Structures are given as structure tokens and as C-alpha cells.
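Recall that a protein's primary structure is simply its ordered list of amino acids. Everything else, from secondary elements to tertiary packing, is in principle encoded there. The following example makes that idea concrete.
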Amino acid sequence: MTEPTDLSQVPGVIPYVDHHDGPRRLLTVEIPHLGHTVRAYAPIASIDGRQYIVTWGFVTFEIPADRNVHVSVHMQTNSGRDLTITPFASTILAPNPAPLRLVAQFVPSQGPEGTLIAVG
């Protein structure tokens, strides 16, 4: 996509809410749950610092196509004690007009830092 997305024709897309007059593209983020995580965590996706409480599975955002965009996913929890560190993953996407799909991968046994991997 090289021009701004007509959101009225793309159901289920979270629009880019900050000021941006340039071209936009679609970003789909998959946030799979790890069984027990459904009860203990709520997934949160962030685009350029704006946080969105989202559902497990797929969520699609409209993002700028002509500049870097910061994307992160983390898990919010109210369980645990004091300084509970929750899983997170973060990346900076380079300018590109093509739609993109990322999958968040977390391995709790290896620490809180996960990865966002481009697929397809």
C-alpha cells in the first residue's frame, strides 16, 4: 500500500492515531498464548508508544510506510509479587510500503525478553 488506507473498507483495523500525512501500510501482529498465559496475562501491543490492550491471536494496525515505526508487545499481569517482570518483545520496522505480519514469541523459561518475527 502506497497511499493511506481507507479504513472504512478495512474492518477490524486499528487506525494510526498520531499525525502522519504520508503513505501507510497494514501490520498484523499475532500474539499466541502459551496455555496458562490466558488466565494470568493480558496482551498489550504498542505502536510508536501508544498502548492497546488487545486479544490473543491476530490484531491489525495501520502504520506509516515511509518512516521507522516502533512496535512492541508485552504481557500485563496483576499476579506475582513486587517486582514481577513480564514477557516483552520489541522491534523497529524500517520504511516499506508492503503489508507485514509479525509473530510474538515468548519462552518464559529463558527470561522475559521475547522476539517479534516477520512471517509470510
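The chain has a mean pLDDT of 86. The helical segments are 37-40.
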